[in-house]
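Before relying on records like the one below, remember that each one covers exactly one chain. Contacts with other chains, cofactors or solvent are not represented anywhere in the record.
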Amino acid sequence: MPDQIVTFRDLQQLCRPGKNGPRPSLATVEQWARRQGIRYLYDARGGIFTTLLAINAAMGLGTATARPLTAADVFGPDH
């Protein structure tokens, strides 16, 4: 799984009722994500995906406070 993307297969693992149980259907995963408050989008294969940030937000975990970007943020420390 890329660093910030949580794939449909990953979401199936997260909402699966048991370790050896069958993989949940798309409808089950969507319903679970909605109940958890996890925002998601549809992928090209008809599944859903989300991000770690969306999962953290659903858990009530905040992110760093926003601040204006500086030239060093955009162009590197030498500018």
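Strands lie at 5-6, 41-42, 48-51.
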